[in-house]
Specification:
heterodimer; A: 314 residues; alpha/beta; TIM Barrel; 2 domains; seven-stranded parallel sheet; 7 strands; globular; disordered N terminus; B: 407 residues; Rossmann fold; nine-stranded mixed sheet; two-stranded antiparallel ribbon; 14 helices; disordered C terminus
Chain lengths: 314, 407
């Protein structure tokens, strides 16, 4: 049994350990709870008997995945814990740090037969109907899609990343109390920066949409979706980062996350930010501003999701 | 594993943002994404994290029972390799970068590029191996470098159909979405190079050409590798005698664009393509070919017809002389096909072809406006495109129902 043995993995089929443990350079992280063989047996039985969706299926699959990662197993018996499925590749924003180009949008969609075959969705803990460079709210049938997934996998936690510019009343109704989390790409705390970085979106429209959503959540007495204000940080919005917590609080949002800009792939149709726009050129200043942001978050009671970046100052 | 040429690792905060939390807790960075995360793109290609070096194998939406087969994506040999070696000396180089340093830092740009290239080579190696077992015929019996292979074409003559490696041609078939298609048509066999590679990767390959000799050569080449094909000779003024929606993929030799009437060819191809089928035009002559001919033509009277064609541009002609990336979308849309813009058009640049000096100012202006100011020239290198390859799909139109409404 694996749960009591430190790393000897006794009781396992040696073939399932795909490499000699001695060759590892790094550790394998904290030991998962439970028992590998029991989780494995549970999932195999669930597949064989076509078990109905349940929170237990999700929990067992997550544990099995954790064990398989811990043991370094290559050929998995678990299903993905988190699934991101592109539903559209069209976006309504032209962010300066994003390689999205409308010329490259195909407007393809997922087929019903594909989804219908995916009976394993019931094992997935988190589902994100997102594509990397598109906004899910652009999809004309986003509301029926969300409903359909809820029917097929009722216990999955759905989340999405959006710029919220198309948050209509119908969508607000569909997600309030149902969607688990929503990361809103704000990327600025000031109108001028926002309308430059996220052109052609309008600051007032987005802020009004978010206020409408948080107001509806208050009316319904629900904390779903859990809204996170998201900022991709670069040189041009670094200074205003400490203003974000106050802004978010005024909208009714009490979580934020900060991502460091990744260098976008150049596109032909417009000029994007380049290496000179990375915050890595001013690590000392960036770290100071992150510290200020942390203080402001404490003042306004805004939680930081994940870890704030910290840059090497050497 | 240290990547050759990589800068020394800096301890402390010089780490990718994904692992800051673990670092803050005093833990060694550990990545569990290959076990936990699956990202599926609209093209059914996959990723495990946003900032990865390439798209991973196709996802075919299996059922729960088929999900873990090694022929599928989740347990694809590369995925298994990535998981097995994570944290070991044989780790995928991009994973090593991500787990060892701040992969977004400009300081590590060179390392990042190297890690991407090394990881991609590794991925291709695994992917080619996984696909090799699904290929038909005996092309595998040849050495990797095919440039020395000679095909006996009778009468004591022979030809060398290949100039590159086997992996190159197979990647070309794969990258253009022709791997595993049930019914494929190869239109134009003047150069028989692609015929065996399409045949080994397809359920049934039909080859068609106006020249009986070309057809015989292509058929002979395929049969040399135990690859049966269905040859069809084309008669002037007649289409291909097949029913509508007969092919899942049509591969057109670029030379056929200038040998046939475009107003007849593209509608016929559209008719033959099954819904969502792919049309690929391989190595169509581009403006560079034309400029080369123009530059080498010294007689003014001989240049006039060439200049006249350039002035009009290919899209105005029924018979295409050359293809420009700029006009492709318009041309295809006019014939009910949709340019595949998720695949960049493949260009062969010609460094020897430069803008010819023209006495006629109007012609020079036309050149500048129509071609050289467009993307027909790689400004940074002063080269002009010589061949263009591109793919298109049969336009389904806006009437396609969303998936939840289809029975």
């Amino acid at each position: 049994m694996v749960d009591d043995a430190p790393l000897d993995c006794s009781g396992l089929d040696p073939a399932s350990l795909d490499h000699p443990l001695a060759s590892r350079r790094r550790g394998r992280g904290p030991r998962p709870s439970g028992n590998y063989e029991r989780h494995l047996e549970f999932i195999r039985n669930a597949i064989a008997t076509d078990a109905p969706p349940s929170p237990e299926l999700i929990a067992e699959n997550k544990q099995l995945a954790a064990w398989e990662a811990y043991l370094g197993i290559g050929e998995l018996s678990s299903f993905p814990v988190a699934l991101h499925l592109a539903i559209t590749d069209v976006c309504n924003a032209r962010c300066l740090f994003c390689s999205y180009t409308p010329e490259n949008a195909t407007n393809r969609t997922v087929r019903l037969s594909d989804i219908a075959r995916a009976d394993w969705l019931k094992f997935v803990e988190r589902f994100y109907p997102n594509s990397a460079l598109g906004d899910p709210l652009v999809h004309p049938e986003i509301v029926p899609i969300l409903r359909r997934i809820r029917e097929q996998a009722p216990f999955v936690k759905m989340g999405m990343t959006t710029n919220a510019a198309l948050l209509s009343n119908e969508i607000v109704e569909a997600i309030t109390g149902h969607l688990h989390s929503m990361a809103v790409s704000l990327n600025a705390a000031r109108r001028q920066t926002y309308e430059i970085v996220m052109a052609p979106l309008k600051w007032d429209v987005t802020i009004d949409n978010l206020k409408r959503l948080t107001s509806r959540m208050r009316e319904q007495g629900t904390d779903k979706p859990e809204i996170q204000g998201s900022v991709v940080v670069h040189r041009h919005n670094l200074d205003e980062l400490p203003e974000m917590p106050a802004l978010l609080k005024s909208i009714g949002i009490d979580r934020m996350r900060v991502l460091v800009m990744t260098l976008p792939k150049p596109v032909a149709s417009r000029k994007l930010y380049g290496p000179e726009d990375l915050i890595h050129h001013e690590p000392r200043k960036a770290n100071r501003i992150f510290a200020e942001l942390r203080q402001e978050c404490a003042v306004h009671n805004v939680a930081i999701v994940g870890q704030l970046p910290t840059l090497a100052e050497t | 594993m240290e990547v050759a040429g990589s800068p020394p690792r800096t301890a402390g905060t010089n780490i990718s943002q994904e692992f800051l939390r673990q670092k803050a807790r005093g833990l060694e960075p550990v990545c569990a994404r290959p076990w936990r995360v699956l990202k599926i793109t609209l093209n059914a290609r996959t990723k495990i994290c946003c900032d990865f070096f390439t798209l991973l194998p196709e996802f075919d939406f299996p059922t729960a029972r088929d999900f873990h087969k090694s022929t599928g994506m989740w347990n694809h040999p590369f995925m298994q390799h990535m998981r097995r070696t994570m944290g070991t000396d044989n780790e995928v180089p991009f994973c090593t970068l991500c787990l060892s340093a701040d992969k977004r830092s400009p300081e590590h740009l060179e390392w990042r590029n190297q890690a991407k290239a090394d990881s991609l080579a590794l991925y291709r190696q695994f992917d080619a191996e996984a696909r090799r077992h699904k290929l038909k015929g005996s092309l595998e019996s040849l050495p990797e470098d095919l440039s020395g292979y000679q095909l006996d074409i009778g009468g004591g003559r022979s030809l060398k159909p290949f100039t590159k490696s086997r992996a190159f041609y197979r990647r070309s078939v794969l990258a253009n979405g022709f791997f595993g298609r049930a019914r494929v048509l190869l239109f134009g066999c003047g150069s028989p190079t692609m015929a065996p590679f399409l045949a080994e990767a397809s359920g049934q390959l039909t080859i068609a050409d106006v020249s009986a000799a070309s057809l015989r050569r292509a058929e002979r080449l395929c049969r040399m590798f135990d690859l049966p094909v269905d040859p069809q000779i084309l008669r002037p003024g007649q289409g291909i005698g097949a029913e509508s929606d007969s092919y899942d993929g049509i591969w057109i030799s670029g030379a056929m664009l200038s040998a046939t009437n475009i107003s007849d060819l593209l509608p016929e191809m559209r008719r033959l393509l099954a819904p969502s089928g792919t049309l690929h035009v391989h190595l169509a002559p581009a403006v560079g070919q034309f400029l080369r001919a123009l530059a080498s033509e010294t007689k003014q009277e001989e240049r006039q017809p060439l200049l006249a064609l350039l002035r009009h541009g290919f899209a105005m002609q029924d018979r295409i002389r050359f293809v420009s990336r700029r006009d492709l979308r318009q041309l295809l849309r006019r014939h009910g096909l949709r340019l595949d813009i998720s695949l960049p058009q493949s260009i062969i640049w010609d460094p020897d072809v430069q803008m010819p000096s023209l006495d006629d100012n109007r012609d020079a202006e036309v050149f500048q406006r129509r071609y050289l100011a467009s993307d027909a020239q790689d400004d940074s290198r002063g080269k002009v495109e010589r061949f263009v390859s591109f793919s298109a799909h049969k336009w389904l139109g806006p009437a396609a129902k969303p998936f939840w409404e289809v029975a």
